[in-house]
């Protein structure tokens, strides 16, 4: 008997594909490339970090507003993959386009990065919602965690190739400038992302959906309004979302701004790239470990563990001074980064009505993305006011504390159908 089905493996492989974007564009190469472009243009370190934070806030606000609306429409038969395809194509195209923007135009880089991020995070709304179509509730924790684990493993390959090219260019061992080497990394990311998404397109299909009806957009807004009116029926689900809103804010901010943070502390690019590479390697087995431990101790208890680790990370970040300190910080993050994201996804997946998964994962997105507005803005404003990025990271502690307190009140719950005969399970 196979450990995982073809549908589960195809779904998990998209984590392998998209994680190249997460490490190279979100975390490592692009932030360094952008910071260098901004510095060359005369922008101060604290200002360029703040502008990156504001950019993240802008594109997350856009998706936060669109997520529930698009998700509700995507619950109709055949719509989920169409929306996924649109955002996927936007993300891949914009990522490739980064390679063709002049390296001295930091503003245009941020604009293109916005479209790439819209594509990546937009596609993830529908990718996450596909978890209810590819596996069963009792397997969700393990499948979700293994997806994150594969993502960390898979991302190390294009990342290793990219940093090898960049380091060789930096040491003038190959006839390329560092700028050109970084642009090659952007192209590698786009190709990797597109290539390994193919199995999902071939083997993953929308099994749970609502039958199509006239005026799907109008009726989607009506269903969305009905959900808001009947919100008390989903107490466990929305209480979890409120907890998620706070703790995932800190997680996302640490991930998206870690490289800029390290740069502000004076850590050189080579050290940052090596630290991030090792972090990916360490994060893979820990993400899978979280999935296994969730089966033994429950996902909720393991979420507590992940949040506590992040509280320690934020406190430690306040005292961060040396490259060794950054190494310790990165390894702490690596132990829980994938686990807390994977179990949040699967925990939520077990709470949602399956035939309305897109609508509710739209809410999952809006809570996560609105949180991602608050975190980067908090770090950006604090960095500019104090001139010290450490203070911004330390301030994230309060978000994790609020998140863990609310999570304690989330009751265990199973998903239920809310659409009666309109719900269809395709064999």
TrEMBL record:
GO terms for cellular component: plasma membrane. Residues 236-427 form the Major facilitator superfamily (MFS) profile domain. GO terms for molecular function: transmembrane transporter activity. The chain crosses the membrane at residues 12-34, 54-76, 83-101, 107-127, 148-168, 180-201, 236-258, 270-290, 302-320, 326-348, 360-385, 391-410. It comes from the Bacteria. SUPFAM superfamilies: MFS general substrate transporter (SSF103473). Keywords: Membrane, Transmembrane, Transmembrane helix, Transport. The keyword Methyltransferase does not apply. It is found in: Cell membrane. It is a multi-pass membrane protein. This is MFS transporter. It comes from Fredinandcohnia quinoae. The lineage of its organism: Bacteria, Bacillati, Bacillota, Bacilli, Bacillales.
